[in-house]
Amino acid sequence: MNKDEVAQILNEIGTLLELKGENPFKTRAYVNAARTLEGMTESLEKVVTENRLGEIKGFGEALQDKITKLVTTGSLPYYDELKASIPPGLLEMLGVPGLGPKKVKALYEKLNITTLDELDAACKAGKVAGLDGFGEKTQQKICEGITFRRTYASRHLLSDALVLAEPILDSLRSHPDVIRCSTAGSLRRNKEVIGDIDFLASSKNPTAVIEFFCQQPGILNTSAKGDTKASVILPGGIQADLRVVSDSEFPFALAYFTGSKEHNIVMRQRAINRGLRLNEYGLFRSDVETRDPLLLVPCKTEEEIFAQLDLAYVPPELREDHGEFLAAEKNEIPRLIEWTELKGSLHNHSNWSDGRNSLEEIARHMSDLGCAYWAITDHSKSSPQANGLYPERLRQQLVEVCKINERFAAEANEFRLLTGSEVDILAGGKLDFEDDLLAELDVVVASIHHRFSEGEAETTKRLIAAAENPYVHMLGHLTGRLLLEREPYKVNQHAVIDACAATGTWIELNGCPDRLDMDWRLWHYATSIGVRCVINCDAHRLESAGFLRLGAGVARKGWLTKADVINTLPLPDLMVELKKKRGKTG
To answer: Which of 509, 457, 503, 501 has the alpha carbon at shortest distance from 478?
Structure first.
C-alpha cells in the first residue's frame, strides 16, 4: 500500500474507535498519523524499508507496526477485526450529512438504531429530536440526508465509471473477434453522474466476445449472460452491460444507445418525416417499423446516419436535445474543445494549505507533464479547516514561487508557477484579503466555503459582489455542490453569470469529479453573453492534474470551444488577459 491508502485506513480506524467510544487521545493519534502521512513528501515504502518510521514524531511502536504491516502485506488484522465489531449500518449512517461518529454512537446507544431504515423511522416518529445534542433542525437535516442518499443510491460519478470502463474497453479492442467497439450511453455523453456503463461491440462471433467480457479482471459477478448481451457488476456496485451486434448494425446501435431519450425521439421523428424508420438495427425505407435488410439504407458510420437525416454530425456529448438539432441543420455545430489544448490549471493547492505536495514537487511534475503554467491558489485565512494562509504566509509563498521560477529560467525551462489565492467570499460579499494583497497576485479565485444555508438572494449578492471586485479573476465552484453528497446552495446562477459578463469576470468549470461546477447546462448561455470559462483541477495532489481531461469532457457538453476557455492560451497571452480586468477598473 502507498501512503494515501495507508492514511485512509488510519483515518477509518480513528472513526471506528470513536464509534466504539475509545479514549479520544487514542482516536486522535490515528487521525494525526494519517495527516502526517498525507503531508509526507518522501516515499512511505522507502521509510518503512529503511526502518525510519520511529523518527517521525507521534509514531510509537504500535503505530509503526501497523503501518509496516499495511505497507508490506497490504492488510491489517487489527483493522479487519475492528471493522467487523461494528454493525455495518453504523458505517452507512456516517454517510448521512450532519452525522459524525459521536452522533451515530449516541443514536446506537440511546435508541438502538443500527440501520438507515431504523434511523429514518425514528426521525419520522420524532424520537431523534429529543436526544441531547440533536433537536428539530438536526432531525430534519438527517431526514433530508437519508432521502438524498436513497435518491442517488444507484448513481455513480463519471470519473469512477471511466476508471472502470477504459481498461475493459481497451481489452475488448484487443480481442481478435471484435471488429469495432465503444462505450455508449451517458458515459459516452460525458454526463457528470451516470447510472450504468454501456459497451457496444460488433463481431461475427458474439458468443466468444461475451465470454471474454465476463472474464474481465475486477468483475464481482455476472448478473445476466446471453448469446449477444451480458450484464456484470463492477467494484462500487456499478452495473456494466455489453451488447454485441453485427458490424452493419454497429453505427445504428451506437447512435441509438448513445443518445439521450429526448435526442433519440427527435432523431426518429426526423426519419419518419423523410419516409424512413430509424431504430437500433438500422435506417429503413419504410413507413412502418421494420428490420427488413432489403429496406436498409446502408450507413457505415454515425456521420452517415446524420447526413441521411440532413444533419451535420453531432458529437456524443451534445446529444441531449439541448439545441443540437437547430445547429446541425445550419451546419453550425462548433469544434468542441480537446483536453490536450489546455495549457495548465489556474486553481490548485499545495502543502502550504490543504494540498499534499510542495511547490517544487508541483512545478517539476506539471512541467514534466508538458503544462506551460500552474497556478498555486491556496486557501485564505477564513478556512482554518484547510490551513488557510494569513497575509504574511501568503507573501512568504510568493517569495518561494519566485525562487522556483528563477531556477526554471536558469535551466531554460519555460514552465512557470503562478502566484494566487482561492480567497473566501465572506458575508455580504466581502473578500478574505484586502485589495492591496490581491493586487500582488497573478491569479485570484473567489469562492464560497461557508454559510451555505443563506437564502438565494444573499448568496447571489455575495457572488455578484465578488465578481465586481477588480482583483478577482474568476468565481470558483459556483454552486458549492458535491455530486451525490451535497446539494448546491441556493443561488440565482443566471444573475451571477450576467454580473460576470458585465465585469469581465471568468467562471470556473471545476474539474474535481464530485464538483464539475459550473454545470454544463449553463455554459451555452454564459458564452453567448461573453463569459469566459477556466477549466481548473482544484488539485490537492499531483495526480489530480488528470482532472483537466475530465473537466474538458464536461466542457464539451456545454458546447465550449478552445476560444471559450482561458487556459488554452499560452503563458504570454494569459498574462495579458489576467491584467485586463484590473486595467479596466483599476
So the answer is: 509
